Amino acid sequence: MKLLHIMASPRGEKSRTLTISNEFLTTLKLKYPNLTIEELDLFQVKLPEVYGNTVDAKYALMAGGILEEQSKASWEEISNYSNEFLSYDAFLISCPMWNFTIPYKLKHYIDVIMQAGILFNFTANGVEGLASNKKMYCITSRGNDYSENSPMHQFDFQEPYLRAIFGLAGIFDISFINSQPMDFTHGITLTNLSLAKEQAVSMAQHTVL
Ligand SMILES: Cc1cc2nc3c(=O)[nH]c(=O)nc-3n(C[C@H](O)[C@H](O)[C@H](O)COP(=O)(O)O)c2cc1C
Description:
The chain is α/β, with parallel strands linked by helices and 209 residues long.
């Protein structure tokens, strides 16, 4: 059993999101000692650009065509990321909210991996996700409060987006911990951080892989 930890905060040890995620992973590892956890730190890797030959290749393949010679290498780089994603059984996404949604590095990663024929297929009946047997956990933190009763709720484009885009790949089993608000006062940050850590421990204890 393999879990990929997709890290989308550049703040390393200072990151609230990653602090909460570490709590989740430590508890999960106690529960499943044989679980392999691999990290993908999106602010440390150089993701392939999605343009030129790569985009040409994407459209050629969607049209059922054959790849031109100059597209093969860049397409291989992109499709390796997508196939690699598919090789995991579960995912943890650690993601602060940036500008009401996800940080650009995570969006870049999603633009790389979301490939027809690998993570989903277009069929006569619509889109069919090819990763439907996978589980996903998302731990987010936000400066403001976007919970259901907050006037800011309508501006949460993070959780709905992550649910929608990974739903395209067939991943509907997604659990969220949204730690918020984190930027009001130091005291509120500490209280919310410890609450989120408790939630993370509980989520790990209830996880069935
Ligand atoms: C570039 C940037 C954009 C941000 N945009 C938002 C935002 O739209 N809404 C919000 O509530 N907080 C926003 N924040 C605050 C972070 O979401 C918040 O401080 C979070 O706890 C940071 O998580 P981290 O410590 O894991 O990096 C932003 C922070 C940065 C650096």
